[in-house]
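User: Please run a holo structure prediction.
Assistant: Happy to. Please share the sequence and the ligand.
User: Here you go; the ligand is 6-O-phosphono-beta-D-fructofuranose.
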Amino acid sequence: MKKIVISTGGGDAPGLNAVIYSVVRASYARGWEVYGSRSGYLGLLDLDELVRLTPEMVADITSTGGTIIGSTNKGNPFAMPIENLAGKIEIHDVSDRVMKNFKRMGFICHIAVGGDGSLEIAHRFAEEKGMPVIGVPKTIDNDLEATQLTFGFDTAVSTATEALDKLHSTAKSHDRVMVVEVMGRDSGWIAINSGISGGADIILIPEIPFDMDEVCKKLDDNELHDKDYAIVVVAEGARAKDQEIIHKGEGEIGRSEKLLGGIGEWVANEISRRTGKDTRSLVLGHLQRGGSPTTFDRLLALRFGAMAVRLAEEKKFDHMVALTGDTMTSVPLAEAIKGRKKVPVSGNRVKTAREIGICLGESGEMEAQELEMRNCAC
Ligand code: F6P
């Protein structure tokens, strides 16, 4: 019987369990067995952490959040933090052990479900160690260039939009400015989509370094039009002109990216200092990653999972499944990890935001330049 292994790495995203369900069902339909590697590559490092996944075990998981096999964003086998006898953390390359166990188990393919970091590791295994790998893109940030959408994003946007809807009434009751920080790392997709849908007055995204004068001008303008409250959405990776991105810290040992966060509070303090308005800030944080996937995300995840098994059957390794239009396609992993997808500043979302009176914190000069570039439909 042919055997494949699936792992989920990086930050979790609603829809991971739907991918697992789909991979298990589509594999068993072909007479193959599926194993889940717990916490990213842990199951391939320590075979006790491998779990055989049967159709019965995944029967009810499609609608659930999280991942039944766990995830981690500090488990890169090429640079694994390991505690030595003296209690000190040392970084070791344990990729050969992973490969040895992969072969020992007789796996014909590894389906790696992850964001850019996990897919980069998967590609390295394919390129340097000859592991037959297929990538499935996952991230609430929607920042993978090679696929139109990733599952988890729609759920995160829905959660953020619902939060904004709720904030309107309390902001209005108190004549307050509510500043909401949302996730998305260096891309403003969650911020711009939820901000437009949730009736924000101001949306600040990483792609457009903002000018606090413009932000305050918008609040004054609101007041002139008898609107004494405002909703401000700030992407965690946004930054003011002439300022650095704000980080919360390095994060845990072994993770490759710094932790973002703090810009919402900074913006709220600036608004309060400059305008004297009653201002509060909140961070939506991991609420955006939790809960049941929306129908859209579920369907996308199920389609990705089935496509990944199809690619395994075709032996189209070192590729990632992707969504192009409404079609399931595949792209070489090397291509898929090349760049991060940003909100196009001359695209349709930005244009829509401007046209319906949402301030993006840009100075007049910046806006004039961008308005000249009208062709992108993103
Ligand atoms: O990449 C997904 C994401 O949720 C980002 O939006 C966020 O910056 C990061 O992960 C948070 O990571 P962690 O779960 O380690 O706090």
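Confidence is low (pLDDT under 50) at residues 374-378.
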